[in-house]
Amino acid sequence: METARSEKAPDEKVICLFPGCEKEAVEPKHKDNAPTRQGPPPRYCEDENHNAASAYHELKRLEKEGAAS
Ligand SMILES: [Zn+2]
Asked: Comparing C-alpha atoms, which of 38, 19, 56 is closest to residue 27?
């Protein structure tokens, strides 16, 4: 029997958005930067190579790979 998985649970851990990465997203480390913890939730894991820019490039790379035949 297949169990239906809910698509989005509100309290689910956030997983890194980097393609292929399945680590849990963590808040970026700021040193003496933000006393108040407000702002967007973390979207990438602790790997400093995983960020919006690198994820974008990786997606582009994967797209090219997928498109190339
Ligand atoms: Zn990651």
From this structure: 38
